[in-house]
Design goal:
Order of helices and strands: HHHHHHHHHHHHH
CATH class: Mainly Alpha
Strand content: under 5%
Number of domains: 1
CATH topology: MetI-like fold
Largest sheet: none
Number of helices: 13
Shape: elongated
Helix content: over 70%
Distance between the termini: 37 Å
Length: about 290
């Protein structure tokens, strides 16, 4: 008996190793994984990595260019840009995960209901999705934020509640396809309830595209938060955010180029990393590609 358990454990271990090797076989996927890993590490250990307090004002070193003292220079209040960039990674990570988490949950629930029950339920939910898609997302978010206090939590909730439509359409399509499969019909004949069929049979088989969509959505959420902060209706100073750092850089572009270049590069690399990781997961989880191989 112990030999059987050991063999099963070994097979599972080797399966995980094969999966990891296959996932890491693409240079682009590895690049995205490394970028995302660095971002998470930076956000978690920001107090250790930052050489200065990101809100510490130093009037003796205002708009100082990159040097050995401040490797990315200082801003108009003498605050260290490198420290603010590091702590800004926390805002980006928090916004990306929470906003996409909200959007994924809302989109999955509505898409599952529409795809599973179909008929008038499907028509009603999909018409609501079409109405939501008629509004440009950034203007819809700005309109909602105008009535709320501009805080990080409000930003995350609003981005999440205005970004679920794509997930809903994706989940609906998956449920429409999966609910006709033999294993679902067998579960229904066996007397399983609708909730059991949805959570035990259909949803586990639809989780792969949802995961890919969520990964790609994190980059979009970070970009949206940066745009809102740049416009002054997102994360408010003195809390460091890459978007409000860009705003200050815009006001001093001719005399302090570093205020715009480094936050812009951070946004670019972060969004690129999540997009590369999402594309890699899409290729890895695509069963049609595996059959072709």
């Amino acid at each position: 008996m112990e030999g059987i358990f050991s063999a099963v454990a070994a097979s599972k271990g080797s399966a995980w190793v094969r999966t990891l090797k296959e996932l890491c076989s693409s240079p682009l996927t590895m690049s995205g994984l490394i970028i995302v890993g660095i971002l998470i590490f930076t956000a978690l250990f920001a107090p250790v990595l930052a050489p200065y307090d990101p809100q510490q004002i130093d009037t003796y070193h205002i708009l100082e260019p990159p040097s050995h003292r401040h490797i990315l220079g200082t801003d108009g209040l003498g605050r260290d840009c490198f420290s603010r960039l590091i702590f800004g990674a926390r805002i980006s990570l928090l916004v990306g995960f929470v906003a996409v988490g909200i959007a994924t949950v809302v989109g999955t629930v509505l898409g599952a209901i529409a795809g599973y029950y179909g008929r008038w339920v499907d028509g009603l939910i999909m018409r609501f999705v079409d109405i939501m898609l008629c509004f440009p997302t950034i203007f819809l978010i700005m309109a909602v934020i105008a009535f709320l206090e501009p805080s990080i939590w409000n930003i995350m909730i609003v981005i999440g509640l205005t970004g679920w439509m794509g997930v809903a359409r994706l989940v609906r399509a998956e449920f429409l396809s999966l609910k006709k499969r033999d294993f679902v019909l067998a579960a229904r004949i066996a007397g399983a309830s609708d909730l059991q069929i949805v959570f035990s049979e259909i949803l586990p088989n639809a989780i792969a595209p949802i995961l890919v969509s969520a990964t790609l959505g994190v980059g979009g959420a970070i970009l949206t938060e940066s745009a809102l902060s740049f416009l002054g209706i997102g994360v408010q100073p003195p809390t460091p955010s890459w978007g409000n750092m860009l705003t200050e850089g815009k006001d001093n572009l001719e005399i302090a180029w570093w205020l715009s270049v480094f936050p812009g590069l951070a946004i670019l690399v972060t969004v690129l990393g999540y997009n590369l990781l999402g594309e890699g997961l899409r290729d890895f989880l695509d069963p049609r590609k595996k059959r072709r191989n």
